[in-house]
Amino acid sequence: MPRKLKFVPVAIAALIGLGAGGAAIAHSNEGSSNDVAESRAFLSSSGSLSNAVAAAENETGARAMSADFGEEDGVFVYEIELLKPDGTELEAKVNAQNYSVLKVETEESDAADNDSDEDEDEDESDHD
C-alpha cells in the first residue's frame, strides 16, 4: 500500500510536466510557419543538445555557456556560445542533423563593446 502512495505523486508530477510541454508546443504552433518548421526540426533531430555541445567543445577546446536552436541558410543549427580559457568568446554553429561544426566565429567581448561605448560618449561630450 505505501508503494502506491509513493508512485502517485511521481505520476502526477509526470503528467503535469507532460501537460506543460504540450502547452508549450501548442503555443509555438500558433506562431509563424517558420516557428512550426523549427519546432518540428528540433523534435525530429536524431540526437540532442548535448551532442551539439560536445561537438562544439571538441572542435574549439572551449566550454559551452549557452545554446540556441535556429535556421541558417536553410539548415537547422544549434548555435553554441563558448568561452576559451583565455577569455575569448566564440559562437559555433552545429548542424542539427549530423552534428558537424559548420562555422566558428569569434564574438566581440562585452568589455570591448563597453570600451567603444565609452569612447563614443567621450566623443559626444567633447562636442558640447
Q: What proportion of the residues is helical, as a percent range?
A: 40-55%
Query: What is the average per-residue confidence, as pLDDT, rounded to a whole number?
Result: 74
Distance between the termini: 80 Å
Query: For the largest beta sheet, what order do the strands appear in spatially?
Result: 1-2-3-4
Overview features:
128 residues; alpha+beta; 26% strand; disordered N terminus
Describe this structure as you would to a colleague.
It is a single chain. The protein has 128 residues and is of the alpha+beta class. The chain contains four helices and four strands. It has a four-stranded antiparallel beta sheet with strand order 1-2-3-4. A hairpin with a 2-residue loop joins strand 1 and strand 2 (75-83). The longest helix is centred in the first third of the chain and has 28 residues, at 2-29. The protein is elongated and about 40 Å long. Residues 1-8, 10-15, 17-24 and 120-125 have low confidence and may be disordered.
